[in-house]
Amino acid sequence: MNSRISMILAGVLLIGALIAGYWGLVLSRAPEPVAAPVVSAVNPAAIVEDQTRQPVVVLVHDAPAFVPLTAADLTIEKLHTAPVGSLTQLDQAIGRMPQRTLSAGSWLTEDSFNAGGPLARMIRPDERALAVAIDEVSGANGQLNPGDYVDVLLFLRRDESNEEQSAQVVLPAMRLLSVGDQLGLANDGKPAVPPPVTPEERAQAAQRKAAARTVVLAVPEPLLSRLMLAAQAGVLRLAVRSADEQLLSRYWAGDSDSPQKLESANRDLYQFAQLALLGPPKRVAQASGGGERPVRRGVEVIRGAQVTEQTP
User: Fold this and answer.
1) In CATH, what is the architecture of 50-115?
2) Whole-prediction pTM
3) Which of 111, 118, 167, 239 could form a disulfide with 192 if both were Cys (CB 3.0 to 4.6 A apart)?
């Protein structure tokens, strides 16, 4: 009896040992890796970034002038800051002809398809854009800006051909189109060239403006030759006019005061007959006896600010 009980107990202990060993083996195994959740291929941060960017139409390669653009010539790039006036859809450029050769990587605007350069788009048909040399003194110490109105002053020194030195306004109220390479607004009210965007570009533009040695004036066509004569005759200075005169506002409103400018300039001008745009003095025939004697024309001699006639 005791031997049978002992055998039963031994069998129970063996089974328990087997169970314990199996359980220990299961626990000692490394856990199976858990499958990672599927992540979308689009990064949420990239989605937010794309929403802040703006589309811009850009040339893929060089585009010659007067050749219609195709879809193969263009692409869309997304920029943090879109240039002013840039096109945003391919349909806005496909089939249109640029008016000048454009290089690859250039972003397109309406100006890319308009004839004429920036200066030509800043003046009216009765105006001309003419450059004038300046320095730190004649250019108002570098404080000139496109859109300012200036009076052009002429200083004539006393010399053999000029009996008395003089200073006078030869061109009143001329509009500044550019200072150095800084241009103002075109006739459509938009910048003639894209303004600098980054702080570095703005700093470089300010340095170039301060070092500018030329300005471009919008000169009424009848006064064009006067400015050329004045530039060769003496020293020019630019006197800035007050913004309270609202000259620029009246210009954008369509007012034209060229005739008044010409009349005023002619009235105030002195000691420089050539600049007054007047013809040579007329000689009156004197009657002698019963008939008129023919007028003998002399040779007009111009010495500086004096006009004389010499009879051969």
Assistant:
1) Alpha-Beta Complex (3.90)
2) 0.56
3) 118
